[in-house]
Design a protein that fits this description.
The complex is a heterodimer.
Chain A lengths: L2 H30 L2 H15 L5 H16 L7 H17 L6 H18 L3 H29 L1 H4 L2 H9 L4 H6 L5 H14 L3 E3 L3 E3 L4 H26 L3 H18 L6 H18 L1 H16 L4 H6 L2
Chain B lengths: L10 E8 L5 E3 L5 H12 L3 H11 L2 E15 L5 E17 L10 E11 L4 E12 L5
Antiparallel strand pairs in B: 1-2, 1-5, 3-4, 5-6
Helix pairs in contact in B: 1-2
The chains are: A mainly alpha, B alpha+beta.
Chain lengths: 311, 138
C-alpha cells in the first residue's frame, strides 16, 4: 500500500466514523419512534408547509396545528385526520380540473391516515400504512412510466426539449447544463409570434432557434426520467431485501435530483414520506436518508434560479 | 406530470370580441384573475372552463387602444413576409362593468395547440377548437 493510498484509506475511515457518530442520534430517534406517529408528524408538517391553496384548507390546517401544539396526542385521533381529509376533499372537488396530480395523492394519503387511526389495533394501523405506502409508490411510478412510454411525443424527446426552451422555470437549469439563456429567450420570442393576433405565420409553421445541446439534454432527461421511474415502481413491487433496498436508493436519487429543477416540492415530500414509511423498520439508514431528503426539498426552495441567472 | 407534449405549455388562446358589424377584435392585457382562469381552462380545455374565463373577461369594459394594427404575415424564420390585408384594434380592459350594464357582445375563444418536431426544429400550430359564447351566457 502506497503512502497516498494509506492516507486516502485513513481519511475515508475518519469520514465514516464521523458520519456514523452523527447518524447515531437520528437512528436512535427512528428506533424509538412509533411508525404511525412518526408518519403522522411528517404528514402534518407537509400539509402545513405545502397545503392546498384554498383558505378553507389553510385555516383547517392552522387550527389542527394549534390543537396539536396544545394537545400533542390529538395527532393520534382519527377525527384529527378526518377533518383534514374532509377539508382537502372539499377543495379537490371544487377545483378538480385545476388541481395538480400530487395534490390528489396528498388527498388519498390524508384519508389513509384517517382510516389508519380509525382502526383500534396498533398492529393493523401499522400494516395499513405500510400496505398503502407501497401501493401508492408502485402505482404512481408504474402508471407514470407506462403513460410516458406509451406517448410518442414523450418518447421522441419533444416534450423535454420543448420544456427546456419554453418553460421559464427551466431557464436556470438550462444555464447550468450549458444552454445559454439567449437560446430559450429566442425560442420564446418566436413562439410569441404564434400567440399574437397581429401576426400570422405562413402555413402556421415556424422554425425554432434551438440548439443541439438542448436536443441532447431533452433526450437524456426523457430516458433518465422514464427508466428511473419504471425501475423504482418495479423494484418496490417485490419484497426481497435486495430489490427493495435498490428501489429506495433509486427513489432517493429521484427525489434529490428531480425536485431541484422541478419546483413541485409537495410531491417530493409526499414521496419521501411514503419511502420513509417503508424503510423505517427494515432499513433505518435509508430512513435517515429520507429525512435528509425532507430537508433538501425545503432547501431547494432557495431562489437559486435567480442566483444562477444573476437576476 | 411530464407525461407527453400535449400540456398547458403547448396550448394557447386567442380571444375576440365580435363587434355589431360582425368583425372580430382581439382582447389583450388580461387581469391576473382572467389570465389565471384562462390558464386553468388550458389545463383542462373544456367549454365549461372557457365559459368561466369568458365570464370573467365580460365582467370588464373593453375599449380600443390606439389605431388599428395590420396583421403581419411571418415566414418560417420569424421575418416579416407581408400583410394579410386585415387590421385589428388592440382591445384593452377599461374598468369593471357594473351589474346594471348588460354585456352585449359575443365572445370567441380560439383554443390552439402547438406541436414541435425536434428533427426539423419546426413548430406547428393547429386550431383545436373555437368556443363561441353568446351575450346572454356571459
Amino acid at each position: 500500500m502506497t503512502e497516498a493510498t494509506r492516507e486516502i484509506s485513513s481519511w475515508s475511515d475518519r469520514a465514516k466514523s464521523v458520519a456514523g457518530s452523527r447518524l447515531q442520534p437520528l437512528l436512535e430517534f427512528l428506533r424509538r419512534s412509533d411508525l404511525v406517529d412518526l408518519v403522522s408528524l411528517f404528514s402534518l408538517f407537509m400539509v402545513l408547509v405545502f397545503p392546498f391553496a384554498h383558505w378553507l384548507f389553510q385555516i383547517t390546517v392552522d387550527l389542527c396545528l394549534l390543537f396539536f401544539l396544545v394537545q400533542p396526542k390529538a395527532i393520534r385521533s382519527s377525527w384529527f385526520w378526518f377533518v383534514l381529509a374532509v377539508a382537502a376533499s372539499f377543495v379537490v372537488i371544487q377545483d378538480w380540473h385545476a388541481v395538480d396530480n400530487h395534490k390528489y395523492l396528498l388527498l388519498y394519503w390524508l384519508w389513509i391516515l384517517f382510516l389508519c387511526r380509525a382502526v383500534a389495533e396498533p398492529q393493523w394501523q401499522r400494516r395499513a400504512l405500510l400496505f398503502n405506502a407501497r401501493f401508492f409508490l408502485c402505482f404512481v411510478f408504474l402508471a407514470s412510466a407506462g403513460q410516458k412510454l406509451a406517448s410518442p411525443t414523450y418518447r421522441s424527446g419533444e416534450m423535454f426539449e420543448y420544456y427546456l426552451y419554453a418553460d421559464s422555470r427551466f431557464t436556470a437549469f438550462d444555464k447550468l447544463i450549458g444552454i445559454d439563456p439567449s437560446v430559450p429567450d429566442a425560442v420564446q420570442k418566436r413562439i410569441a409570434l404564434f400567440r399574437s393576433p397581429y401576426s400570422k405565420p405562413l402555413n402556421d409553421e415556424l422554425e425554432l432557434p434551438g440548439n443541439d445541446r438542448a436536443r441532447a439534454a431533452g433526450l437524456i432527461l426523457t430516458w433518465w426520467d422514464a427508466l428511473l421511474q419504471l425501475l423504482i415502481g418495479l423494484l418496490l413491487l417485490f419484497r426481497f431485501n435486495a430489490t427493495e433496498k435498490l428501489g429506495h436508493i433509486l427513489l432517493l436519487l429521484f427525489i434529490f435530483t428531480t425536485y431541484l429543477p422541478a419546483p413541485i416540492f409537495g410531491f417530493g415530500w409526499i414521496l419521501a414520506i411514503m419511502g420513509l414509511t417503508l424503510a423505517k423498520e427494515k432499513f433505518p439508514r435509508i430512513a435517515v436518508a429520507y429525512m435528509v431528503s425532507f430537508v433538501a426539498v425545503i432547501v431547494y426552495q432557495v431562489p437559486w434560479r435567480e442566483w444562477v441567472l444573476g437576476r | 406530470m411530464f407525461a407527453g407534449a400535449d400540456l398547458w405549455l403547448n396550448r394557447y388562446t386567442k380571444i375576440f370580441i365580435l363587434d355589431p358589424s360582425g368583425n372580430r377584435q382581439p382582447l389583450s392585457d388580461f387581469t391576473s384573475e382572467q389570465a389565471d382562469l384562462l390558464r386553468r381552462a388550458l389545463n383542462y380545455p373544456i367549454r365549461q372552463n372557457f365559459l368561466i374565463a369568458a365570464k370573467a373577461i365580460a365582467s370588464h369594459h373593453w375599449i380600443p387602444r390606439g389605431e388599428r394594427r395590420p396583421v403581419t404575415l411571418i415566414d418560417l424564420n420569424g421575418k416579416r413576409a407581408g400583410t394579410t390585408g386585415e387590421s385589428l384594434y388592440w382591445m384593452a380592459p377599461f374598468g369593471a362593468r357594473g351589474p346594471e350594464d348588460r354585456w352585449q357582445w359575443p365572445l370567441e375563444i380560439e383554443y390552439w395547440k402547438l406541436s414541435y418536431d425536434p428533427l426539423t426544429r419546426r413548430a406547428h400550430s393547429t386550431l383545436a377548437e373555437t368556443f363561441r359564447f353568446r351575450p346572454e351566457e356571459l
